[in-house]
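Section 3.1: Structural characterization of target chains.
Under the original work plan, the team committed to producing a structural model for every single-chain target entering the pipeline before any wet-lab resources were allocated. The record below documents one such target. The sequence was received from the expression subgroup and is listed exactly as submitted; it comprises 225 residues.
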Amino acid sequence: MAGAATPAPATDEGTAPAPDVDEGTTPTATAGESAQRPASVTGESSNSPAATASPSAPLAGPGTDPAPTAPPTDGAIPKDRQAEQQPGLSVCLTVTHLDGVVLARSAFHHSINYRSVVVHGIARQVTDPAERTAALDALVNHVVPGRAADCRPANARELAATAVLRLDLAEVSAKWREGGPNDEPEDLELPHWAGVLPVARHYGTPLPSDDLASGIPAPDYLPGH
């Protein structure tokens, strides 16, 4: 799990690379100077050292060092937050949003318009109940704004089956492409249509569940209701 594993070097395996683009690509923008900014809902950083257990003390005897003193209990990390103090795991997160399909006069110059972000950082598990709830509510509201307050919250069993991770940002880069095709000058007079086919996400008309009780209207926050 990315919240509790021992740190491992970041690799490119399993990472979805940004699509290849042609001459119209906007240069990559980097934000390497980003100083360990957490990506959690609360914005709370988790850069405190990992909690370690003291090794078992050897029996005292001739030629042996004194047994280590047990750490004081005052200020101990609560059990529900100990997972957040683990070293975490180096991860690479990639998100790509498709904006359009670029159709050129030549097959070689066909492309896509897109926006892509690649993040490298340390993932740690979030165990604080209030922060977990805030993160899960934000996830639901990101899909349909206002929905988190209009449904049953997760119970203890459901929360136990769901992991929430905080990602401390170490390096962020962004790439995107926009505009039309980049045909060769000698191809501009060819009798082939060229341009951009936009790709957009939209919601349709809400369809009530077959077992929905009568008299429950579609809520106002649903688009197209």
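The longest strand covers residues 89-103.
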